[in-house]
Structures are given as C-alpha cells and as structure tokens.
Design a protein that fits this description.
alpha+beta; 5 strands
Length: about 140
C-alpha cells in the first residue's frame, strides 16, 4: 500500500480529512489526497432562501440583539405587533384582544418593517414597542 505525504494548509481540509493521522499539519493517508478548490467549496445561498430564524440570527448579530430561538420567538411577537400597528391610523388599536396606545408613529413602524428586509433595525424603536408588550428583547 502506498502512503502519500501531504501538507494540510486549509482548516476545512483538516476537518474533512480527520480520518487520517496528522502531525503538525502533515497528514499520512492510505489513499490519494483529494484536491480541493477553494471556489468549489464556497456555497452561497441567496438571502431570500434563508429561513426566518436564519434572517433573525443575521439581524441579531449585526444589531447586538440576543441570539437564540426563544429571543427569535419574542422578536416575531413584536414584529406582528408592529405590523398590526401599521394598519391602523388612530392612536389606539387592538392586538390579540387588548387595546394599546401607539408608542411610535405609523411612519416609524413602516420604516421599522421596511428595514427588516435590509437586515437593519432601529433597536430603540424595537425595544420601545417590546416594552409596551412587556416582552424582553
């Protein structure tokens, strides 16, 4: 059996080829080492293909919001509240059977929802609405 000596420089290669024995970046494999092309390894998804949770993780990381699924569920609750707020022109509106006064204007609520597509959010307005719902974000 022939042994090939290769140098592992890419951490992805080191993880992928963990079946071989490595000593300081040098691996001994009983099979020919696969050839990796860095461009072939990059898989890019469009943001439109991301799930809502993945979009939240990107937003939370960018805007310093808490990460995790529980935080995501609270965030979804606040966003549904803001979307209900947009449809009403009065200063008061009903959400899930409870009457609320608007803490932010309709135009601010529109800009908050529009900014979600760009993965940017005004954290002040988001937290203000969350406090009104007694939800911690």
């Amino acid at each position: 059996m022939k042994m090939r000596l290769i140098t592992l420089t890419n951490s992805f290669c080191q993880r992928w080829l963990c079946g071989g024995v490595t000593y300081g970046g040098v691996g001994f494999f009983p099979f020919p080492a696969p050839q990796f092309n860095q461009k072939d390894m990059e898989i890019k998804m469009k943001v439109s293909q991301f799930s809502d949770y993945e979009k939240y993780i990107l937003l939370a990381d960018k805007c310093k919001l808490p990460l995790g699924y529980e935080s995501f569920l609270r965030y979804k609750e606040v966003i549904s509240f803001v979307k209900d707020m947009i449809g009403k022109q009065n200063d008061t509106f009903m959400h899930n059977g409870t009457i609320y006064n608007k803490k932010i204007s309709t135009s601010d609520a529109n800009s908050l929802v529009d900014s979600l597509e760009k993965r940017r959010v005004n954290v002040f307005y988001l937290k203000l609405v969350a406090n009104q719902l007694k939800v911690r974000i």
